[in-house]
Please model this.
Amino acid sequence: VQLVESGGGLVQPGGSLRLSCAAFGFTFSSSAMGWFRQAPGKEREFVGGISWSGGITYYADSVKGRFGISRDNAKNMVYLQMDSLKPEDTAVYYCAAAESSRAGKNTYEYDYWGQGTQVTVSS
Model:
């Protein structure tokens, strides 16, 4: 099993980034997926999640209305569109996969993790 994130980088406040996560080695189309982030000195926190079909998405209050999650089951890809970025969004962003078709906001609900991609929001 492998999850590979890409798309991170440096962006100015108010800007946008789109993170991608490529999945390998498990039945992606039946797995719930999530995005988490971890800032220096802080615990890993939930950003958003998407059900196996993409029909249900859910977000942390801190990103609701600014971030959007989507998936392409034909390509084994999940995406995190981040708009109106703020300096407090600076963190390493992780893609996570659950063996279940639905998963919540807790790290223990996810079975597989990527290595992370750095997002820095700064002027």
